[in-house]
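Troubleshooting: if your tokenizer reports a length mismatch, compare your output against this known-good record of 158 residues.
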Amino acid sequence: MNKNYICLIILIFIVTIFALTRCDMQKEKYPSGKDTVESFEGGIYQIMRNPDRSLSFTNLDISTDIEKKIKDYKKTNNQLFIKGSIGYTVFNLKTYTIKQYVTFEGYTDSEIQQYRQFFEPDIKKLSTCSRLEKYEDFSKEERRIFETLKSSGGIPRL
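Known-good structure output:
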């Protein structure tokens, strides 16, 4: 009986060690790199630092920037709010859904046409992304948070 008991203890120990090392081996689909500022949903969505030191919000599954140049952002318990160069984006951190209102403030007609030609088709592939028709389609609380982002000084370039 003692020999069986010792074998059982050793077996449980080996299984426990295997299970613990297995947990460490589970990696993100897209690991964070030196340019990653924040990462979500296994690294699929990342806030990344661009070569010019600005930030972008990117979906690495489709290799597309959802927001090319982040002016400011705020992370709450459940949502990421982004004020960017093309508009306003809310990313739900629990459901991984995106609401976006595009304004193109300060863009030329040529730049808007280029964006629509190269980026919009990829963003439309995302079933989790919905475009809002007007800013007022955001909830009152979402607009309140965006107003605080508008009045802030933006993100310092490091």
